[in-house]
Protein: Dehydrogenase/reductase SDR family member 12-like
Amino acid sequence: MSKYRNIVWFLKAMQEYTRGGYETASRNFLAKDLSVNLDGQSFMITGANSGIGKATAMAIAKKGGTVHMVCRNKERAESAREDIVKEAGNNNIHVHILDLSETRKVWEFAEDFKSKHTSLNVLINNAGSMLNIREVNFEGLEKNFAINTLGVYILTKGLIPLLEKNTEPRVITVSSGGMLVQKLRITDLQTEKRMFDSTMVYAQNKRQQVVMTEEWARTYPRIHFSVMHPGWADTPAVVMAMPQLYESLRCRLRTPEQGADTVIWLAVSPAAARTPSGKFFQDRRMVPVHLPLAWTRYSREKARALMVRLETLAKRIQPSGGRSQLNSPAIETTGSLQDCIKKAA
Ligand SMILES: NC(=O)c1ccc[n+]([C@@H]2O[C@H](COP(=O)([O-])OP(=O)(O)OC[C@H]3O[C@@H](n4cnc5c(N)ncnc54)[C@H](OP(=O)(O)O)[C@@H]3O)[C@@H](O)[C@H]2O)c1
Structure:
């Protein structure tokens, strides 16, 4: 079955995810959708120093929005900020340093941001990674999972109270069409038991982002949640993580701006706000989260079970009044992860 999924997916990808796919889809885009003034609105974008995140930050800055760039490297972040301020002529661009693989710091960052800011209109979970070797973080979590899944979960959950203070808050998560080949998994979240295949770990994390978005949309009706695939864009992440794919497809890849188009549309357009919350988008259109006949469908119970596992892990790592809840007996996790977390404590 997974062979069938991979073949169907690859044929689809070559047609839709490439630059040609964007050019075809963009014939139906309405220019007026993006003609908005974002004065007085604030946007947090993770991974805003590069690729799709930087292109998104630039477009929002040009429309007058305040941008909070959340980046892990100060030098790269400051250099991108300089470019944005200069090209957009907007000084309301702020850098925050956070490595999303440092799970406890994600909690601390969200709490700190909430205490210092009275408003946030839109959160864009853009940062992502595909680390080709299995590494664990301080808390003993596999790093791709920590960055792509738990980091997104904690940052979003932490900022929901702030987002809910606004009238039309939005959360956009940049997933990947690669998730279509993955059936949702709620066990072995740290890839301790199965063989570590970074492409599949990444695709599974991206599937989990889709499920989180669907579940949040049900739980928080005052916020508009969406998740999207940017297509295949020429960015450092692709060069680093998939050098062979990059070499064979480089002339067919989208520009970062083309990859960012749907992120921006979801973040700012009135048209996107009218779509139902919790959906998956590609090129400004809602698209299915499963390939035909691919047997990747999951039950509500399974989706909820994932959320419970994430909440459990997040709570275990959440600092509370200066002390973490690492030893809370009420919280269960897998034996080996618990061991890792205890060692880290
Ligand atoms: N490009 C594509 O074809 C494609 C396709 C599908 C999905 N995506 C998704 O698009 C999103 C943006 O990627 P991109 O293609 O624009 O690549 P990119 O230019 O390499 O940007 C990735 C961003 O994520 C940041 N990041 C990575 N790990 C981080 C961490 N631990 N903490 C904080 N920030 C971290 C990177 O920071 P540094 O600059 O410090 O590394 C960078 O700013 C990702 O979620 C990716 O999975 C991209």
